[in-house]
Amino acid sequence: MPCSLTAGVLLGFAIAGMLPMPDAAAQATRSKPPADDLRAVYATAADVAEGKRVAEGSCARCHGVSGISAVKGVPHVAGQRPAYLHAKLRAYQAGTRGGHDMEAAVKFLSDDALLKVAAYYGSLEPAQFRATGRKPAPQKPATLAAGKAGAAACAGCHGETGVSAMPGTPSLVGLDPKYFAAAMAAYKTGQRKHDVMQSLSASLSETDVNGMALYYALQKAARAATPAQGDAAAGKAAAAACAGCHGEQGISTNPGTPSLAGQDAQYHVSTLRAYKDGARKEETMKGIAASLGDAAMNNLAAYYAAQEPKAPRVDKPLTLAEWVQRCDRCHGVNGNSADPRTPALAAQRQEYLEQALRAYQTGARKDSVMAAMSATLTDADVLALAGHYSQQRARAFVFVMVPSR
Question: What is the DSSP string of 288-308?
Answer without folding.
Answer: HHHT--HHHHHHHHHHHHHSP
